[in-house]
């Protein structure tokens, strides 16, 4: 049971209902973590705005999902791991790639660099080295794409915090976290 209220159509005020209806029409469902966000329409609008803008960048959907999977596993967020496993599959990631992403790498050499960089961002609270930035550039990432990787890491940390703090019920096929040995 969620430790933070889940806003439903029945409990929503008019502003919350408008936001939830827009999400429903776009996704065909309203994921539970967005129902938690809906407690603060301002926070939900901020998240949706950032998510919408970030998905218009030059990183492809598969790379964005790879980052989400790696960060969810790294931050031990079972909700986000479950959600992004389902979304990653829809984006074309296979089971082996999803497993690699959860481990912070990829079968794709360029994407592996993005995931390594994303993992370092999380591990070091953004204090990455010049060598890590150069490695991303040498792999073919522009400065715009490096900023987008940072943005996606930050956005996923936010959703990981919502998922973990609220302990919201997982409404995707559940994926168990791998615990480091």
Biggest sheet layout: none
Provide the number of structural domains.
Answer: 2
Strand content: under 5%
Number of strands: 0
Shape: globular
At the first level of CATH, what is the class of the largest domain? Mainly Alpha
Number of helices: 9
The N- to C-terminal Cα distance equals 29 Å
Output the helix-strand order: HHHHHHHHH
Helical/strand content category:
mainly alpha
The name CATH uses for the topology of the largest domain is: AhpD-like
Radius of gyration: 16 Å
Contiguous low-pLDDT stretches (5 residues minimum) are none
- CATH-level-4 superfamily name of the largest domain: AhpD-like
Structural description of this entry:
The structure is a single chain. By secondary structure, the chain is an all-alpha fold. The chain has two domains: 14-54, no CATH class; 61-166, AhpD-like (Up-down Bundle). 65% of the residues lie in helices and 0% in strands. It contains nine helices and no strands. It has helices at residues 14-27, 32-37, 41-54, 61-74, 78-90, 95-102, 109-123, 130-138, 143-166. Helix 4 (61-74) crosses helix 9 and helix 7 (109-123) runs antiparallel to helix 8 (130-138).
